[in-house]
What does this fold into?
Amino acid sequence: MANIPTVSWDETKPAGTRDANLGDDDIREYKTQVREILAQDHKVASSGQDTDWGFHQKVSLLVQASLAALANAFRLFSKDVSSKAELHGVDEDGNEVQITSGGKILGDNVRLSNNTNLTAKDAAGTSTVDLIKANTDDVPEIPDGAVMASSGAPTDDAGIANKAYVDAKANKGANTDITSLGGLTTALSTAQGGTGRITAMSASGGYSGSTAGQSIAHGLGRQPVFVSILNVDNAEAESMWFTGLTAIKYNGNSDIAGSVDATNIVFTGGNVAGNYDGRTYLFFCW
It folds into this structure.
């Protein structure tokens, strides 16, 4: 880049001893120097005139250190970031803002007004497309018609699911696309098509006729309960409805007394005089 001005600036010229007939040379030299300096960023020619003379054709901001705040002013300046000149500004409160970064507008310092969309140019270049905004409830909002980049399933627990992914899942109401269920911690009730039990044995248990106060959690969430009784010792079985306070009859004898509620069958003892006292019974409840 050539030196500007072409003739070195010298504020000692013209000297007081310089011949008067050389003054015109110094005046022309001065005018040329001013024009060359102004022409770095402004429109100015060596002769003539125009309505746009003196206006900026460009603004060249040389790299410098941070600027101090100036009352009632916003000051623009250029500052090195990673050895590259980037546009900065400082407001009257001393807040320094980096405006450019790596050949792009730096978006870190952009703040839109509430309920105002961030926009992009449309494909035709004739209008804009709304991208996202913070609505009046201060919640991020994307416009209707926004789509995901693909129809793939979200890969993160907090990811947004696209329509194709959601449509592939079981729908509310009647559907035929559920083939199995696993990991249930709450049993499906009979009204929901289940048994009210988490495992096959959750509504069964054993009872020794000589021990009172034992309890079996039938897990059905209701009563009455249909009970199948198996005498393990004799391999004999009998079934009956068990509701409220009931004496379970086994072969016509009051072998086991107990009660039932929506959760448990509680056995209060056996018939000590009976033939089945002290034997082991298994109960299976439905």
About this structure: The first helix runs from residue 23 to 38. Residues 200-213, 245-255, 269-279 have pLDDT under 50 and may be disordered. Helices lie at 23-38, 163-167. Residues 204-285 form one domain.
